[in-house]
Amino acid sequence: MPERTTLKDVAREAGVHISTASRALNPTKSGVVSPSTVLRVQEAAKRLNYRAHPVARGLRTNRTLTIGVVIPDLENPLFGPLIAGSQTELAGHGYSVVIGNAEQNGLDTRKVVNDLLDHKVDGVIIASAARSDTWLSGLVERGVAIVLVNRILDDLSLPAVVCDDVTGIGLAVKHLYALGHRRIGHVAGPSSVSTGAIRRDAFRLWMTKLDLLSQRDQVEEANWFQADAGQEAAVRLMEKWNGITALVAANDLIALGCYRAVNHMRKRVGIDISVTGYNDIPLLALMQPPLTTVRVPYRDMGRRAALLMLEQLSSPQERSPSRLEFLPSMVLRESTSAPTTD
């Protein structure tokens, strides 16, 4: 068996002291080495196919160079790009990623985060936080690096990377308005999480701006961001409002539930009732009719959350809450059209 390449071999190949090679290959310390030297050491390590032993590396740095990423629903395909964006960025800085599935429940989020911390991850990127998860602030006070992604707390106490959902819902409502729809309903996500609450409030805001908000309850809340819950909520909304011509769904899976509900009511999506989604999950573009939706740049959001985590780890004394918003865009397909009735 060939001998494993050592850090000493890399240092000799690059023509530097072993301590310089160590710093150059350490994402948390490479800033103290000149960029040209870092590049030379990295190229030497690549030529020699050098890989740091994780246990030895952890002993030297007092870190495991692993980051936990906690998501609320592993079966929801929107989280794939978010994880991929984070993992790609972190891997480029020498970090590995451990995924935790929080099973749609705030109590499970706490358990998953604590389990990851028990396994000595250096920080946690969390996409499953509920609006009231103030216990996370207690972890930060203990020195844990935490970044939220796609979610915020009501008190805005933690750094977060999110989509501008007010603008996103506005894109959907204004699109339907331009087509001639005036009786527009919203199948909202759960109000216990920021994505549900902010999109619901944004719907009411834009309906008010367009003078379309009536005394009628035009919002029905699904108990989770899944198709079955979306179908149940959409049926309830359409049963109490027979004249509805369009549905704004809080996410694409809820929109899939709206399709089922429209069919259940013996109506046609995109003809009798228009439906818009939110996220632009690739496979749902294959629905019939293809779904008009709001596109969210989840891969870019995951990448930026990773960068924010790396900034916290490199300068823990400078941690401060920040909220970075990405702009959404509208993708027009065949699930929306002009209303067939006045």
Descriptive overview:
- The chain is α/β, with parallel strands linked by helices.
- The chain contains 12 helices and 12 strands.
- The protein has helices at residues 7-14, 18-24, 35-47, 54-61, 79-91, 106-118, 135-141, 165-179, 194-209, 227-240, 252-264, 298-314, and strands spanning 66-71, 96-101, 123-126, 145-149, 160-163, 184-188, 219-221, 246-249, 274-279, 292-295, 323-326, 329-331.
- It has a 6-stranded parallel β-sheet with strand order 2-1-3-4-5-11, with helices on both faces. The protein has a 6-stranded mixed β-sheet with strand order 7-6-8-9-10-12, with helices on both faces.
- Helix 5 links the parallel strand 1 and strand 2 (96-101).
- The N and C termini lie far apart (79 Å).
What attributes does this structure have?
342 residues, alpha/beta, six-stranded parallel β-sheet, 12 helices, 16% strand
Summarize the entry for a quick read:
It contains twelve helices and twelve strands.
